[in-house]
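Quick start: what a row looks like.
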Amino acid sequence: MADTDKNSGDAPKKPGFFGRLFSGKRETEPAPAEVPLATEQEPAPEPKRNWWRRLRQGLSRSALSITTGIANVFTRKKLDRAMLDDLEDILIQADLGLATATRIREAVGKGRYDREIDPEEVKAILAAEIEKVLAPVARPLVIDAAKSPFVILVVGVNGSGKTTTIGKLSAKYVSEGRKVMLAAGDTFRAAAIEQLQIWGARIGAPVVARGQGSDAASLAFEAVAQARAEGAEVLIMDTAGRLQNRVELMAELEKIIRVMKKIDAEAPHAVLLVLDATVGQNALSQVEIFGRKSGVTGLVMTKLDGTARGGILVAVAERFKLPVHYIGVGETQDDLEPFEARDFARAIAGLEDEA
């Protein structure tokens, strides 16, 4: 997915620290200390509002496929069963899942048969029902300071965006003042090792790495031991992308976890499964098998801006009830943010921000 400017329609603004950090202009841009601090007379920036704009833009393809269908179905006619059938089909095609589509169909139909219903009313019901599904799983990833290093193992299939997600997460933790260490456990790809080393150099985080083809489980043991010895607060380990139906590769993942536990019986403290939203229904199979083999504790969904079927996040939440920690709607640092159910629900339903 090519880099794009998700804020191209907004007024230009001075880039923040991470904008400079990852723009390749670190030597010419002013240091972070030169950026004026907000005062009582000078309102602080609006990160929430900025994220809402990026989220709406990122989910625009998914929202358009749903809202266009709704507008075509609910066209000043009295509500009947055929219209509800069409609505259910639209939601299933958007990958929201049968259970959620059925619930929304019933909510729209309740008390509204044989009267006209406006598309905006349908969208409001849609957003409310999606929020009900997502609210229980919208939970932050909490770093337990009592478990040091707090070990995060990142898993997923090829191309899901694991290494980039690790870079973005580690940058966030470093910005919070945490001491972070990275482990380049994707030993199948030399490019993945180099990519993580570049991220480490940019944010000042040491990277435990070996050559391509090295044993990932041995590297995991070394990384946990080194992180403990050097007093790292957070250790994030990358892993090679593996298809969920490859038995031998899933067995290797289980071995990595067993080896970590030889040093810390509770490690890894979090297992994040990175899901690529563009894979649609295949995400359900990934969650099921990775969950069984590696004990997934939470999800990160990426590339929501690259698909018209972003509703798959709703289907995953409905079926597995796993925490969704972060979502990504682009390539930049600011395009990965903690997941908020209400924002997502309103954005995918094509509604405006209430603020």
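That is the whole record. Residues 139 and 157 are 23 Å apart (CA to CA). The domain at 150-340 is CATH 3.40.50.300 (Rossmann fold).
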